[in-house]
Amino acid sequence: GENVEQHPSTLSVQEGDSAVIKCTYSDSASNYFPWYKQELGKGPQLIIDIRSNVGEKKDQRIAVTLNKTAKHFSLHITETQPEDSAVYFCAATPANMNTGFQKLVFGTGTRLLVSP
Amino acid sequence: DSGVTQTPKHLITATGQRVTLRCSPRSGDLSVYWYQQSLDQGLQFLIQYYNGEERAKGNILERFSAQQFPDLHSELNLSSLELGDSALYFCASGALAGTYNEQFFGPGTRLTVL
């Protein structure tokens, strides 16, 4: 089955710096890669995702890149702000077009701390 | 706000007891997923329902069961509770099956087993 590794487990940056979180996956059939932000006491919030037919996607200060050959994908946050502080999870899923089964396999999370 | 609602927010119970967690998906979503989040296991997929039918099972214990009702809300039943069942339980919902669909998570239910 799919296995997702995520690094680093913690990341501390100064406000205005960039932050990069990296994930690798094992199942070459995986073709959908979402990123979630989880704040304390809340559920995971989808912040950006990328499909396997795309190499990069941007949404304002966040971007995700995907290298299918190497089976890794990364989250990039530019101009970080204190409100970006949270735990970030990557996930991968092989979309089974026949059954509609879309299990998400999550990485272990990265605690991002942005200091003013 | 994701549009997914979960009740109760907190639940404290004793070992051996049974509890029911409830989830209402976003309007229009037919799929409901249940996940367990614990400190040592991270976010783990438990089970998926699509339009009332079970579609897939993950790491769900036999003591746990779920169902999705005609109005599409779902319930996760946890029985013979053990201390190790203490965790956050999240429900997520998604739209159509068989496409690249985002999963939107609810706020979770924090279960504490004493």
Order of helices and strands of chain A: EEEEEEEEEEE
Outline of chain A? globular
**Average pLDDT rating of chain B:** 92
Oligomer: heterodimer
N-to-C SSE series of chain B? EEEEEEEEEEE
- In whole angstroms, the N-to-C terminal distance of chain B is 31 Å
Low-confidence stretches of chain B: none
Number of strands of chain A: 11
Round the mean pLDDT of chain A to the nearest integer and report it.
92
Radius of gyration of chain A: 14 Å
The count of strands of chain B amounts to 11
Describe this structure in words.
The complex is a heterodimer of chains A (116) and B (114). In chain A, strands 2, 4, 5, 9, 10 and 11 form a 6-stranded mixed β-sheet that branches. By secondary structure, chain A is an all-beta fold. The mean pLDDT of chain A is 92. Chain A has strands spanning 4-7, 10-14, 19-25, 32-38, 45-51, 56-59, 62-67, 72-77, 86-92, 105-106, 110-115. Chain B has 114 residues and is an all-beta fold. Helices cover 0% and strands 53% of the residues of chain B. Chain B has no helices and 11 strands. Chain B has strands spanning 5-7, 10-13, 19-24, 31-38, 42-50, 53-57, 64-68, 74-78, 87-94, 104-105, 109-113. In chain B, strands 2, 4, 5, 6, 9, 10 and 11 form a 7-stranded mixed β-sheet that branches. Chain B has a 4-stranded antiparallel β-sheet with strand order 1-3-8-7, with no helix packed on it. In chain B, strand 7 and strand 8 form a beta hairpin. The A-B interface holds A 31-32, 34, 36, 42-46, 49, 51, 89, 95-109 and B 2, 4, 31, 33, 35, 42-45, 48, 50, 55-56, 58, 90, 92, 94, 96-108.
Produce the secondary structure layout.
The complex is a heterodimer of chains A (116) and B (114).
Chain A: E1 4-7, E2 10-14, E3 19-25, E4 32-38, E5 45-51, E6 56-59, E7 62-67, E8 72-77, E9 86-92, E10 105-106, E11 110-115
Parallel strand pairs in A: 2-11
Antiparallel strand pairs in A: 1-3, 3-8, 4-5, 4-9, 6-7, 7-8, 9-10, 9-11
Chain B: E1 5-7, E2 10-13, E3 19-24, E4 31-38, E5 42-50, E6 53-57, E7 64-68, E8 74-78, E9 87-94, E10 104-105, E11 109-113
Parallel strand pairs in B: 2-11
Antiparallel strand pairs in B: 1-3, 3-8, 4-5, 4-9, 5-6, 7-8, 9-10, 9-11
